[in-house]
Every structure is written in C-alpha cells, then in structure tokens.
Amino acid sequence: MTVLRLRGFEIHKGLLDRAEQLVLLDGVRAVVKAAPFFRPVTPGGQKMSVRMTSAGKYGWYSDAEGYRYAPTHPNGTPWPAIPDAALAIWDRLTGLERHPECCLINYYDSDARMGMHQDRDEADFRWPVVSVSLGDEGLFRIGGQKRGGKTDSIWLQSGDVVVMGGEARLHHHGIDRIRAGSSKLLPKGGRINLTLRVVE
Ligand code: MD6
Ligand code: FE
Predict the structure, then answer these.
(1) From CA 146, how far away is CA 148, in angstroms rounded?
(2) pLDDT tens readout for residues 2-28
(3) For the segment 127-145, what is each residue's pLDDT rounded down to a tens digit?
(4) Is any atom of ligand 1 closer than 6 Å to the C-beta of 104?
(5) Which of 56, 91, 109, 165 is buried most deeply by CB count within 10 Å?
(6) This prediction's pTM
(7) Whose CA is nearest to atom 3 of ligand 1?
(8) CATH for 2-21+82-197 (2.60.120.590, 1.10.10.10, 3.40.309.10, 3.30.499.10)
(9) How far is Cα 104 from Cα 193, in angstroms, rounded to an integer?
(10) How many CB atoms neighbour CB 188 within 10 A?
(11) How far apart (Å, rounded) are the C-alpha atoms in residues 186 and 97?
(12) Is the Cα torsion angle 25, 27, 28, 30 positive or negative in sign?
C-alpha cells in the first residue's frame, strides 16, 4: 500500500485487498438489487455512458431538470442504506465523526467514460469526497479548479481509494477510458466506482 499525491488528490494505491473488495462488492450488489442501475440523461438531453445508482439519504443524478441530489431513485423508492464496508473506508481515511449522506455508485462498461467535471452539488466543500475503484482499471484525469489547462492522469485499479479534499475539493477530474479485461473481480467485467459524499 502506498499513498500518492497528485494535484492535491490523495491516492491510496491498493488500500483494499481482494477479500475487502469482495465484501464491498457484496454491499454494492445489495444496493443494486434494491435500487437498479439506470443511465442518467444530462440537462442537455444526452444519455450518459455510465450507469448509476446510489445509497444513503440522498442519491445523485441528472435529468432534464438538471444535476442534483434527490431522496428517491427515479422509480420513486428511497435509496437503500450505504454499505457498512463503504462507511468503514470513510472512517479509516477521514477519521471524521460526520458520515457521508450519499454513496454514488457508477458502473462503466468498456466503452463508458466520464467527462471532466467538478463535484459541486454539495452544500459545503469543506467535507472531502472519498472514491473507491473496483474491477477493471480506469484512466483518471485530474486538472485544476479552472476548466481547461494542464492535467495529469493515473490508472486507478481495483482496491485503490482516492480522497479529494482541501485545495483539491473543486479540482476538475474525469475518467478517460477503461482497460477491458484488466481485473477478474467482476465476473462480467467493467468498472465500479463508489463516491462517498456529505451532501447537506
Ligand atoms: C470515477 N470519480 O472514478 C469518477 N469524484 O469513476 C469521480 O468523479 C470522483 O474519483 C470525486 C472524488 C473522487 C472521484
Ligand atoms: Fe467526481
């Protein structure tokens, strides 16, 4: 396990061993059973390539009305609880008494990507965002507070955990591509990313 710092992001390479990844994956499966993945539509009307769902008091998604947190899945049911294994990672890395109110779960097939964005739908940017990668590797690109400009990239592997806090909290970031077949964790391949956020 090593910790890298890239543009203010703290990247814990190999934080989770395979057994821990499998426990977390069980938690993800329980969430997806109660709150199935869907493909959000951007306010501009484009279907996102990433499939999403959430756990916690709030879930994040977008539709014609914009990007936002909502207390229910688009199908009208409340989001299931955040898996304990995910909260344990938050506790371990942040040591905060406050717990996240949203665990956004993204699923990338080999063609999915996520454009450069800031996470700015939360009320207070003093809280960090913690992100966990499972399955196939994803090429993570990090820039600065302003759109455009210089960026750096790093491959995130299954079991890597990223903390985005402090000066990096509003840095742009995205996933350029997925390396198909690079992990055996998910039987059908692809990449899962969980991001834990304090919303209110
Ligand atoms: C992903 N991650 O890794 C996308 N956001 O699939 C994010 O958008 C992200 O990794 C906030 C903090 C860390 C992240
Ligand atoms: Fe993000």
Answers:
(1) 6
(2) 999 999 999 999 999 999 999 999 999
(3) 999 999 999 999 999 999 9
(4) no
(5) 56
(6) 0.97
(7) 193
(8) 2.60.120.590
(9) 8
(10) 6
(11) 32
(12) positive
